[in-house]
Please model this.
Amino acid sequence: MIVRFWGTRGSLPTPGSATQRYGGNTSCVEVRSGEPGAMVVLDAGTGICAFGAQMSSSVSRIDILLSHLHMDHIIGLGFFAGLFRPGLEVHIWGPGSTVLPLRARLTRYLSPPLFPVRLRDLPCRLAVHDVPLGTFELPGLQVTAALVCHPGPTVGYRLDDGHSTLVYLSDHEPALGARRFPDLPRWTSGFDLAAKADALIHDAQYSDAEYEHHLGWGHSSIGQAVAFAVHAGVGQLVGFHHDPWHDDDTLDALYSEYADPRLRVTPAREGAVLAWSVNEAAARRDR
Ligand SMILES: [Zn+2]
Ligand SMILES: [Zn+2]
Model:
């Protein structure tokens, strides 16, 4: 599995010299399973625009897995070049609501007056799916989706290519309402999804001090993400969905406090490719 970050920022794009190293584009992560011609993209923030611009013409199918429909996760969708490529098979997966299917929810953004083109007028071969909660198959990947703690219908994803496992919990506040955190696994949002993953991409929007002023906003502190990752026994944690007010120097300072011998912790960086040892992954699977 190859994992590349195209957007790491939370809430709002933050271009500029102060965010050049970790990136200013909002959530978008490319996942390649090795299945020829197929690609998966997690979320469609502004990062998906640069991803689409360099996408090879040999790609014949792309699956976009949306965690939820907050604007920072779908704002790039209408500007994704793949939607305008005739013949390209594009599948968009994401949560419906209790009253509307995903297609109707997306159409609120992808239609005038907010956007000039309607979904039905796109030249690609588009299929929009309400993501099933549970496990389903994509080319080269087994995907598990589960609802997680965040305002509005929101899912986390676990991707397994038969050799290793990646978990994506972009917007997630598992500490909300917990008297102790992390508590028993069955009471911890996202725990089953994340358990023993080789790599966990997890919401780490705030410093621990900032979190105290943002209870219920749907995000985690870096310290909470570390505690969650240790509790779930993952191989490495990538802190994601950086706060728009955290520039590169701030992120360096914040993450320098979380050198933990039990876990590799890094802040997600736009352009970076995530790697892990195949031997470690095999050992983790056997445990
Ligand atoms: Zn977000
Ligand atoms: Zn959100």
